[in-house]
Amino acid sequence: MPSPIRPAHRRAAFTLIELLVVIAIIGVLIALLLPAVQSAREAARRAQCTNNLKQIGLAFMNFESANGHLPQGPHDGHPQAVDASGNPSPSGYNYDENPPSYGGTTCCNAAHPDGWNHFFRILPYMEQQQVYNLANFDLPPIWPTGSRPSGYNNGENDVARVAIPTYTCPTRRAIEPYGSSLMYRNDYAGCAGFFQGLSYECSTSEENPRFLPPPPNGLGPVADERANPNKGNTGGRKGAIVWSGQGWTRKLSDFRDGTSNSILVSEKSLPDSRHGSDGGDNERWNNSGWDEDCIRWHFVPVPDSQAPALNGFCSDPAGGNTGSTLWRRMFGSSHPGGLNCLLGDGSVRFIKFTIDPSTFRRLAVIDDNEPMSADQF
Known about the structure:
Blueprint: H1 16-67, E1 93-94, E2 101-102, E3 105-106, H2 118-121, H3 129-132, H4 156-160, E4 188-191, E5 263-267, E6 295-296, E7 302-303, E8 311-315, E9 318-325, E10 332-333, E11 338-343, E12 348-352, H5 357-364
């Protein structure tokens, strides 16, 4: 008699211990792989940022070759300085008048948002001629205090509504417009050299106009000078970018320290909380005048995460000056450990945040005649 058919043996389900072991193994794998993935993504983003600066550098070099000087910022008129009516005004901007004047016509202050900057000026050398052509040079890029005439349009808004991917660092943010007007920003700034003169929000008196005590890195604004405030054209303290309102220009031959030892453009310091807002990121990418939206100075660079704590100090009124934050004047980045810097020879170097402040100051100035070797940065 045949034996009865026995039912197939069913394998028991995972035990709790086996399940916990599997979960633990998955957790360990994630812990091991996630930093590697994040590191790889940041390496790609930093490489893209480096490439952005190389493109900017190539455009700067081509502009200099074609025009005999580097693009400057802001260019308050085209092809020469003009007053508010568009008439030639070679006298340029008079900072010492109160209120300041431009060609004898009350106009804009040094941080006025109007004026075509160096990033706009290089567009034809970045295969962006069609964007450059949106500007209307028959109208002045400035206007006296008050409302502009009805229908006035010099093209600045049209230009600002065009995204230029080269001007955005992918580590910091995605390419996106800001505000109800949907205009784009810029993550890079030209180097204006050694900061001197008045600090925003402080007393404007001759006796006590500046940061007191000096900033944390010990390299604050010059305490005994008022000449050419914020214009970047004082001998021994010049930057690669100079204010063009008085006809000043900068040539590569002016880099007495050597183009490989001088910063041309770098990433600007910008806390996450200030994206698209006042304090270095409220203006359009194509203008913003002689302002920290498109230029920065010699202060030692800081990570974006540390930037909000770096405030200036005023002597009148005494105490902390939260309205005049130093990060607005610094270079910096969202990259771990440092920032990308475009040098005058067109190369891009990654400079650590731990760089000696005096070394960075020498990199920011093109004519201090102080010796420096590449291994210092």
